[in-house]
Specification:
The chain is globular. Strands 8, 9, 10, 11, 12, 13 and 24 form a 7-stranded mixed sheet that branches. Strands 25-28-29-32-31-30-33 form a 7-stranded antiparallel sheet. α2 packs parallel to α4 (175-187), α2 packs parallel to α9 (395-412) and α5 (250-259) packs parallel to α6 (275-286). β8, α2 and β9 form a beta-alpha-beta unit. The protein has 4 domains: 17-97 and 236-362, FAD/NAD(P)-binding domain (3-Layer(bba) Sandwich); 114-232 and 368-432, FAD/NAD(P)-binding domain, CATH 3.50.50.60; 450-584, no CATH class; 603-694, Orthogonal Bundle (Arc Repressor Mutant, subunit A), CATH 1.10.10. With 694 residues, the chain is an alpha/beta fold.
Length: 694
């Protein structure tokens, strides 16, 4: 079994071991784990085979948005990523739907309960929690619904510290801790009811919201006000091999590694240089997984520069102006082939490289989960939307937009609010803005005393270092959150190291010339081990341009306020002290390309609709025949008719339309299903089934 037993940030809980069967074989997992994680724990990545072409099926989103991970659990088809494992459960590969019972038997049905509430909040992530906190603190009756077993949404996957400000979004605190903080607050509010493991199915024209409560009971809620904070779903790319087991979303990887503590891979390759991809790479390294490389199609990564720098310093090659050509393997991923892009977005001949890996993470952006919002608008409900469902941005921005939308609801209720909504929205827009280009910073001349050095060079909304300095000597220009910090030097720095420990980008060092101005002591942050580094051990010191050499550790410590960030001090020659940014425990070992994977592909080999195994070539053929209506395309190809309801393939098909020169205004959108999640028909009649069978 491949579970993580040691992690620099995450606590390893003592979980009860339970048995289950998969395709007749006795296996073991842990109580509270979902089926997909239990299978990964046992090194099983193929969950079944598609009935159309017998292609192997495995995990993709791990968030209930697709149906790639379907299995048959105790005779019922379920999503493995959403269904809790139970002791003695019998699980089978999903190679098509199970046979219906030969005889119908009478069942008991019941009346469906209708529950009234002031506000229904759908989504218990950063936006939903933040909004519920504001509403509950104003004694508003709230039902908060989330489809996972614990509150926090993507916060439970985030081991890194947040950007922004401490006052507004808990900057300098790790996402997992913010999730716990907000979850504890809302759980203790008298006017708030929390329903976890509860799935919202649909919004109806009579303004009722249908929910499977606690994975078992169908209820209807009649809210006066509705807030949608449902987050986002992973985008996919079209390339040969894109549905092989081992190719999945970065969020799914973080779910396996950071939530369920599964060592889901040995060697990963990442597609996408936004914050999601960069952070996922760092999380992989923390979990002891090698990151073979990362490709970004644009000339530079779109995520924060400090996230990119963290990976580079740890020896991860980043290939900009490159893209994935193919994922290679038969029943599972064995390698990935990448190539350099020309100015016309073609592959430069001879630039192809193939790297061995067992996992390919797709981090090419997110789509808002906003269908509930538009359906509620259609039925003239009083509805608001926050977080990624409103606009894709950082989780810190989601916390802020959740607060704003909750204040708007209070205002709609006639409750006076002290906050200036216009100013709050201006700040939210600042936090959601695309990061600007890095700027050239000057090297500090000073070579005496002790002081912090700031290695961040991108004006992003972040200032926790200004809040933790006990002498208030760290400032930003005009106190603006997007300006780079500087040390005022109004009085002597006391060398407490709090600014080094709090920095979300690990971009502050402390330089001490007091004992020797020729060989100062430099203190670095380290988040790669929970074990205290011993004095005298040699570590590799790195700058943003590469390795600077091995040097001995003179001191290592953990601050009480920041127990997971180790401060490691090293004596360095003065000529490199100001350019040293971090340390790592081993020298980087780069993965060399293997012999090129030779195989010719056509559009008919590339899958665009995962559920129905519809190829790019088939979609392109009908577009060229003149099809401009999604519904017609669906009838001709079955694209979008699968279990996920077109959640994954719609944006990809839109891209094919664009590639064929068809403008968006000339395309008729497909009709969305009235139900946004698959559910047994018996649920609407009030028939109960086994726990976890939805």
């Amino acid at each position: 079994m491949e579970n993580i037993t040691k992690h620099p940030i995450l606590e390893i809980p003592d979980k009860k071991k339970i048995d289950f069967k998969f395709d007749g074989k006795l296996l073991y997992g842990f109580e509270g784990m979902v089926i997909s994680s239990a299978l990964f724990l046992n090194k099983i990545k193929i969950f079944g085979h598609h009935v159309k072409d017998h292609s192997p099926q495995g995990l993709f989103c791990a968030n209930g948005q697709c149906s790639q991970c379907n299995v048959i659990a105790d005779g019922v088809p379920v999503k493995a990523c959403m269904t809790p494992l139970t002791k003695g459960m019998t699980i089978e590969s999903c190679n098509g739907l199970p046979e219906l019972p030969s005889e119908d038997s009478r069942v008991e049905v019941r009346d469906i309960e209708i529950i009234n509430t002031d506000v229904l909040v759908i989504g218990g992530g950063p936006a939903g929690l933040s909004a519920t906190k504001i509403l509950g603190e104003n004694n508003i009756e709230v039902i908060l619904v989330d489809d996972k077993s614990r509150l926090g949404g993507k916060l439970v996957l985030q081991t890194h510290k947040f950007f922004g400000s401490q006052e507004d979004v808990y900057a300098g605190t790790r996402g997992i801790d913010i999730g716990n903080i907000l979850g504890d607050i809302v759980s203790n509010l008298d006017s708030v009811k929390i329903w976890v493991n509860s799935i919202v199915l649909a919004i109806f024209s009579d303004e009722l919201v249908g929910i499977i409560k606690d994975m078992d009971e169908y209820v209807l809620i009649k809210p006066k006000y509705l807030l949608i904070a449902t987050g986002a779903r992973e985008k996919m790319l079209v390339f040969p091999g894109n549905t092989l087991p081992g190719v999945y979303g970065a969020g799914a990887f973080q779910t396996l590694v950071n939530r369920d503590l599964i060592k889901a891979a040995e060697n990963v390759f990442i597609v996408g240089g936004g914050n999601v991809g960069l952070i996922a790479g760092y999380h992989a390294i923390q979990a002891g997984i090698k990151v073979v490389g990362l490709v970004e199609a644009l000339p530079k990564c779109g995520g924060y520069k400090v996230h990119e720098d963290k990976l580079k310093r740890l020896g991860v090659p980043i290939y900009t102006n490159h893209t994935v050509i193919s994922a290679n393997g038969q029943d599972k991923l064995e390698s990935v082939t990448i190539g350099k892009l020309t100015d016309s977005w073609d592959i430069e001949p001879g630039s192809e490289k193939t790297f061995a890996c067992d996992t390919l993470l797709i981090a090419v952006g997110l789509d808002p989960v906003d269908e509930f919002y538009y359906k509620a608008q259609q039925f003239n409900m009083k509805v608001w939307i926050a977080g990624d469902a409103q606009e894709i941005a950082e989780a810190s921005a989601a916390i802020f937009t959740g607060k704003i939308e909750a204040l708007k609801i209070l205002k709609e209720m006639g409750i006076s609010i002290a906050e200036n909504l216009e100013e709050l929205e201006d700040f939210a827009n600042l936090m959601k803005a695309k990061p600007p280009d890095p700027i050239q910073t000057e090297v500090v001349d000073k070579e005496e005393g002790i002081f912090p050095l700031f290695h961040c060079n991108q004006e992003i909304p972040c200032n926790p270092c200004t809040s933790v300095c006990p002498q208030q000597q760290i400032k930003t220009v005009d106190d603006l959150i997007t300006q780079l910090p500087y040390f005022t030097d109004d009085q002597d720095c006391i060398g407490c190291g709090k600014c080094v420990a709090v920095c979300p980008g690990l971009a502050i060092t402390l330089v001490d010339y007091r004992k020797d101005n020729k060989s100062p002591i430099v203190t670095f942050p380290l988040e790669l081990t929970s074990e205290k580094i011993e004095v005298g051990r040699k570590v590799m010191v790195v700058g943003n341009d590469g390795e600077l050499g091995e040097f001995e550790v003179t001191r290592a410590r953990f601050l009480k306020e920041f127990p997971k960030t180790q401060l490691v001090s090293v004596r360095l020659p003065s000529e490199i002290a100001k350019f040293a940014v971090g340390i790592k425990l081993i020298k980087s070992i780069y993965t060399e390309p293997m012999d090129l994977y030779q195989q010719s592909y056509t559009d008919d080999d590339i899958i665009v609709c995962r559920c129905e195994r519809v190829s790019v070539g088939e979609v392109r053929k009908w577009i060229r025949y003149g099809v401009r209506d999604f519904n017609e395309l669906k009838a001709l190809t079955k694209a979008g008719m699968g279990a996920c309801g077109g959640k994954t393939c719609t944006s990809l098909i839109n891209r094919i339309f664009r590639e064929e020169g068809i403008k968006q205004e000339n395309i008729t959108s497909g009709t969305k299903r009235p139900l946004f999640v698959e559910v047994p028909m018996g649920a609407f009649a009030g028939i109960k089934s086994k726990k976890g069978s939805k």
